[in-house]
Sequence to fold (194 residues):
Amino acid sequence: MILPAVRDPRLVSIRRGGLLADADHQLLALWAATCAEHVLGLFENSYRDDDRPRAAIEAARAWARGEAKMMVTRATGGHAMGAARPLRGAPRFAAYAAGQAACVAHVPEHDLGAAAYAIKAAAAAVPRAQERDAGRAERDWQRQQIPDHLRPLVLEDQSRRNSICWFVFEDETPPRSNMGPIPQPDAGQGAGGA
Fold:
């Protein structure tokens, strides 16, 4: 579970009683989709016939443009996570990243789920000796993609939730063996959050 027990009102949409403007919620969804798409090839190279993760990324972008309803986007994210469940390693994490990206439409804080899973995918795609470097490179690339005015908020959130995101946002990404068990989000949890 990548959602905190105590929610930051700056990352809760205005329509749900928080402080996050709709435009910034949409930008977080676009950022999460970008993070997920950056590692999507790690899934698609092995599972070309399964378009559920790509559909989730496309749904996140459509929602951000106002062309898709939140419930449909969220469900599409759940389907991408369904594609991930039977898998292992980089393809699994890449599919989870896509699912989390689509779920940002429902809960903005899923943006870090997309980013964290993408980092795990990048680290899992290389030999163990290269995991730290690959994870850090992915994290640094992602940070360059954050919209400028949201960067302080996202970086603070990464620091605050680093421990529940397998410590992937630290300067020293732990090796895979220290990143905890392979996550298996429940479709209801991953899509709905809290």
